[in-house]
Structure formats: C-alpha cells, structure tokens
Input
Amino acid sequence: MTEMKPVEDVFLVVDVQVDFMPGGALAVARGDEVVPVINRLARRFSHVVLTQDWHPRSHVSFAANHAGRQPFEMMTLPYGEQVLWPVHCVQDTQGAALHRDLHVPHARLVIRKGHHEHVDSYSAFIEADRATPTGLEGYLLNVGAKRVWLAGLATDYCVAWSALDARAAGFEVIVIEDACRAIDLNGSLDQAWRDMRAAGVQRVNSDDVLKARETT
Ligand code: VGL
Ligand code: ZN
Output
C-alpha cells in the first residue's frame, strides 16, 4: 500500500485566547495584532495544531487561590518557582475561548494544557513539574513531523517553553517573532530569547516564511 508522504512541517499556534488579548484577564500588550499574521501564515501550512490554556478555577497558578498573595508575585511550589497569575483561561469560559477572528479551519488538533489543578503548564509538551507529558510529542512523532514552527502568546512564556521542549524532543524549531507578543515580566523576554538561541531555536519574521512558502 502506498502511503501519503508525511508532512514534515507543523505550525503550532499557541494560546490565541480572549484572556490574553487587550482587555482580557491576563492581557498581553498588542496581543490581538498576532491574529491576522497567524491567519495568513496558517494558510501556508497543511498541518496546524492549536493550543489552549485551560485551567480549573481552583488552579495553583492563580494568586486568588493563595491567601494574601497578589498577581505577578513569585511563589515556591513543590515543583519549583511559579509566577502567580490573575485568574485566566478558566475551562469553558469566554476568556478561554480562541479569539473570534482566528481563522484556521483546517487545524487538526487542539492541545489543552494547564488542566491539572496542582501543576501549571506553559509548555505544550511537558507540564511545569517537568515530568508530565501532554501527549503532543508523541502525536508529532507519530505523524512524521520534523519541524515545528511557532507563533502566538506569549513569546516569553508559553511560546518559549514550547519551543525549548520541542527542541529537546529533537525537532527543528522556528519561532516567527512578529507573530508573537510578550508579557515581559522582569526581563523574561530577553531571557527567553537567550534560552531559545542557546538551544538552537531559529528566529524568523513572517515575511520570510510567507516568501519561502509561496504557493504558485
Ligand atoms: C501563559 C502565563 C500563564 C501563556 C499562560 O500563554 O504564555 N502565560 N498562562
Ligand atoms: Zn495559564
């Protein structure tokens, strides 16, 4: 039996959700600007995977669930240092919905992460305990993926952690910088780019991707 040639490129669109948009519960400055760029890029990829931050209301990453703690403080948890966030992306709320203008009808898979009450997960691959897999690595290996292209929110958290874990899993990894926006908390954006560069993550602009993947 002949097999279809596996598509080696996968476009991973991270957390383009209402709560990360201006006016949202954990707003990323100019986060909405990524939507048209991602829509354009997504048309050049036959294989697109989306992620959704998807927390129970009792989630350990919410400052509101720790007496006397404020959003954006650090807290030591059993698995390490955790930023305490405003309540965001609560399962099945409007804030957790994908942005209404995100238009990727051919997206094949939506990975929901951060659903365990006691563990956060910035990464689409491995939760913050650095042990619990989401299943995305197995999925990508199973479909024959070789390269993972990333865009979305936020550059310095969920995009960066996902990019680093994709590298660690052996994929070629490219972050499309102008299709991302950052939170930038205490230098987190510079640190994220340093870490990604050191790990061999490539950094490109959407124009280059669109040009290189032009359809005739
Ligand atoms: C994110 C902080 C908390 C992200 C998710 O999508 O980058 N950041 N939860
Ligand atoms: Zn979150």
